[in-house]
Amino acid sequence: MNNLQVSEHKKQLLPKNIVKVVVVLIILLALSIIASLVFGSRTIGMTGLMDGLLHPDVQSHEANVVRQRIVRTIFCFMVGAALGVSGALMQSVTRNPIADPSILGVNTGASLFVVCGIAFFNISSANEYIFLAIAGAVLTAIFVFGVGSMGASGATPLKLVLAGAATSAILSSLVTAVMIPRSNVMDQFRFWQVGSVGSGSWDSISLFIPFLVIGLLIALFTAPALNALALGDEVATGLGVRTGTIRLFASLGGVLLCGAATALAGPIGFIGLLATHLVRLVIGSDVRVLIPLSALTGGIILMISDVCGRLLGSPGELQVGILTAFIGAPILIYITMKAKVRSL
C-alpha cells in the first residue's frame, strides 16, 4: 500500500457527525438510567424517585427501592461498558467484524474455571470468582488464537470464528461434565451461568473498578496502533508499529475486561458484538473513537435489556443474559450474511 492509499484510509477513518452521535448517546444514557431507576416489579413515581436520589434521610419504600436500583444501574452500566470495549478490541485485533467474547469462546473458558472452582475448591465469593474467570478467559483466548493461526494463511476471520465455536462447544461439555454429578454445584452455578446484573452491590462495583480502569487504559493506549494495524501488518510495521506487542496488549485488555465482567455478572453474550457494530456503522472504524463510544453504547444496551427483562418477567424478572442472546443471535446471523466473514 503506497502513501496515497494510507492517507486515503486515514480519511475514511475520520468519524462522521461525531458530535451528534455523542449527544444522542448521552440522551439515550440519561433515559436508560431513568428507566432503570423507575421501572421494575414496581414502578416508582416521581416523588419516590426524587426522594431516593436527593433525600437520603427519607426512608419510604419507594425511596429505598430507588437506592437499591442505583447500585444495580451503576453495576449494569459498568458491565456493559466493559463488554463493549472488549468487543471493540477483539474485533480490531482479529480484523473480524463478528469477533466477540462469547463467539470466540472466552466467556465459556471463564465459566469452566468458575465451575471448577466451585466444585473442587468450594469458592463462593466474587473475589475468588474474578481471578478464576480472568485466568480461564486468558487461557481460552490464547488457545483460540493459537488454533486460529495455524496453517499458511495465518489467523483469518473465518478460522478464528470456527476455532472459537469449536472451543466453546468443548468447554461447554466440560462444564456440564463437572456440574451434573454435583447437585450443590449445579444449584450455585446455574444462576450465575444465565448472566444477570441483579446481584450487583457496592462491593462488586469496588472490586470491578480496578479491572475496568486498567482495561480501558490499555484500550485507549493501543487505539492509535490498532488503526495502523487495520492497514495490514506490513504497512503497520513500516509505520513503526510492533504488531505482535500491540496485539498482545490489546488482547490482554479485552480479555481482562471480559473476564472481570463475566466473573461478577455471569457470561452475558453479544454485547460487544452489538455495541461495536452499531458504533462502527455510524462513525466508521477509527478505534480511538470506537472504544469510548462502544463503552457508552454497551452500557446503554445492557441497561435497556435489563429494564426489558424486569418488565417482561414481572413480578419477577427475566435474566438479562437471556434477552441479549435472544436479540444478539439474529443480528449475528445478519452481520455474517452481510459481511460474509470478511476482514475489516
UniProtKB/TrEMBL annotation:
Q: Which Pfam families match?
A: FecCD (PF01032)
List where in the cell it is found. Cell membrane
Bilayer-crossing regions: 18-40, 70-90, 102-122, 129-148, 160-180, 201-226, 246-275, 287-312, 318-337
Q: What is this entry's stated membrane topology?
A: Multi-pass membrane protein
Give the top-rank taxon of the lineage listed in the UniProt record for this protein: Bacteria
**CDD domains to which the protein is assigned, alphabetical:** TM_ABC_iron-siderophores_like (cd06550)
UniProt entry keywords in alphabetical sequence: Cell membrane, Membrane, Transmembrane, Transmembrane helix, Transport
Per its UniProt record, what Gene3D superfamilies does this chain match?
ABC transporter involved in vitamin B12 uptake, BtuC
Family annotation (InterPro entries): ABC_BtuC-like (IPR037294), ABC_transptr_permease_BtuC (IPR000522)
- Family designation: Belongs to the binding-protein-dependent transport system permease family. FecCD subfamily.
What's this protein's name? Iron ABC transporter permease
Q: Which species is the source of this protein?
A: Solibacillus palustris
